[in-house]
Amino acid sequence: MKQSRSEFWSGEEYDAQYGNYCSDEISFFQDLMLHRNVLSLLDVCCGTGLVTIPLSKKLSHAVGIDFSRSMVDFAKSKSSNISNVTFYEKDAVSFDLKSVFDLIIMTGNAFQAFLADTDLSSMLENVKKHMHGNSFFVFDCRLPCPKYFETTHNYEYWSSYTSYSGENVDVYGLDSRHPTLSNTMLHRVRREYENGMQYQSYIELKYRSINEIGDRLEQHGLQLVERYADWKKTPLTESSTSFVGVVRPLYRDH
């Protein structure tokens, strides 16, 4: 039950499509870093470093890990002249950097990519291993609600963007329930380029409730200390469809 790499085939295309959507996350972390004396950062599932690289300017060192070689290679290319940021091709369920960080982050709803409970537990155990008593772990994810479980019978238009090479790309999606996993959606994606080329991929997303996530965190010595509906710190309500969680170790340094 591993997440497909097909959606992350090109770091250049990933940046072209998503490169302008991280400003709220960056502002959130910059504020936390300023008020919590954060000097070191670990970005788990960092993609092409869209968040890691801007934050590294205010840190002594930053590290990003991702399971996609194309993402990591492009992140390295973009940061080649930055001395305090490093990227590694590593899987979040099995990595060990033998170091601890003041702040560990996971953005882009990557928390939902851990489909099996065993993989989620392994990821959380690894995160905890890389924290000291006063570290923070911050992540976002969508919550189970009817709109996220809607299915479609045909490919429907989602969005458009300008590719790395300057072509217009139209993105279409086909949404279905996962055939074997509960509370999991399978999204098939088709990108149509101006030159007639198509690229097909898919991504699977697991939806867990806040209570379930909180229980999982506590099983690994972690606790939710702040909860928001988004990166702008909108208060969380019963009707919220996503949330941002700020996590601390259950037992802290004194």
How is this structure best described in words?
The chain folds into two domains: about 5-145 and about 210-250, Vaccinia Virus protein VP39 (Rossmann fold), CATH 3.40.50; about 145-205. Helix content is about 25%, strand content about 35%. The protein is built from six helices and eleven strands. A seven-stranded mixed β-sheet has the order 3-2-1-4-5-11-10, with helices on both faces. The radius of gyration is 18 Å and the shape is globular.
Mean pLDDT across residues: 96
- The percent range for strand residues is 25-35%
Distance between the termini: 40 Å
Measured as a percent range, the helix fraction is 10-25%
The named CATH superfamily of the largest domain = Vaccinia Virus protein VP39
Keywords: Methyltransferase, Transferase
Protein name: Class I SAM-dependent methyltransferase
InterPro entries: Methyltransf_25, SAM-dependent_MTases_sf
GO molecular function: methyltransferase activity
Q: What does the secondary structure layout of this molecule look like, with pairings?
A:
Layout lengths: L10 H8 L4 H14 L3 E5 L7 H5 L4 E6 L2 H10 L6 E5 L11 E6 L10 H13 L1 E12 L13 E7 L5 E10 L6 E10 L4 E9 L3 H10 L2 E7 L13 E8 L5
Write a compact overview of the structure shown:
By secondary structure, the protein is an alpha/beta fold.
